[in-house]
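Q: How would the structure tokens look for this protein?
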Amino acid sequence: MHKLAFAYGNNGQYKDSLEIDDKVYELSSKVLGEEHPDALASLNNLAVEYGELGEHEKALELTRKAYELSCKILGGEDLSMHGSLHSLAIEYIKLGDRQKALELKKKLYERQSKVLGEEHPGMLRSLNNLAVQYGELGDHQKALELKKKLYERQSKVLGEEHPDTLISLKNLAGAYDALGEHQKAVELAGKACERQRKEQGKRNTMVY
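A: Here is the predicted structure in token form.
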């Protein structure tokens, strides 16, 4: 049944998909119990469907329920919980509660730091998300602090000329600009463009 719901969803027929996923969740939770992995997967699918239909309050309710049940079974620091925590933060953003989303993203970052280590790719994404969240809340000083940390880690792990590192350097320039440090912003943006041209030149040489 879920495959049929998935097909409807891919075609943009979210109401039909929701109806099927609702039945799947009802059956799986009744037969297997609401804490069974299949029932939890169905609950997450149902939350996504409500979100696609713009019913974000309902999507948040179901996402929170799925997260709490998963925490009960797996524990809050299990790796599989990190995606659920991120999904919960996204639902709060859609409802305009960016402060709550920030709290959840901080929690996610702290848990990932403990489990994965500071230089894991997943940690770099979480650090970037956290920096963006602070910027959107108007705390540009904190956003700058985190973007500097992200750039330094990416330079170390990926190299200074890696595309992701160059994007972070441009974002760092934007953070300085938001604080009125325009000269520093221009300097970093120029450095990013120079490195990008250098890297592009290397690629062109390799082609020939």
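Residues 4-9 have pLDDT under 50 and may be disordered.

The chain is about 85% helix and 0% strand.

Upvote if useful.
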